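Might you be able to consider the sequence and fold that I enclose below?
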Amino acid sequence: MLRAQRDTLALKCAGVEEALGRRAVPPSTLSLLGLVRHLADVERRWFRQVLAGQDAPPRFSSRTNPDGDFDGAVPEPTVIAAAHRAWHDEVTFADTFIADARDLDVEGHDAWRGTVSLRWVLVHLIEEYARHNGHADLLRERIDGTVGM
C-alpha cells in the first residue's frame, strides 16, 4: 500500500515539471513540488531518524523554517531536480530498511510519540501519503485539468 501511495504521488507530478511549483490558491504555499519536498523529509524523519537512529536533519525544513519544504518549493530546474533526487534517495533508504528489518516489530524512539514500531510507521506513512495525494489531485487538476489519474 505504501508503494501504491508513493507511485500515485509520482504519477500526479509526471509531465508538468514547469508547473510543479505552482501554488494551489494564494496565499497558500501548497504545491506539488512542496509535497515532494515535504514527503522526502517525512520519509527521512521516520526511517533515518526514528527507526535507524541516524543524525539526519530534514533536507528542506528546520526549526527556524518549519515550512521550508513548501516555502522553498520554487519552479526552478535545480530546485525541482534536488527535490526529486531527495525523495528518491529517502524512498530507497526506507525500502532497504524495510527489506532488511527482522520483522515489523522493530522499534525506534520518536520524541512526540515515544516508542513506535516499523508497523506503526508504515501505517502512518500510508495515511500521510493518502492525505497528501488528495491535495495532489486538486493541485494537478488546477494545473492542467487532469483528473482521475
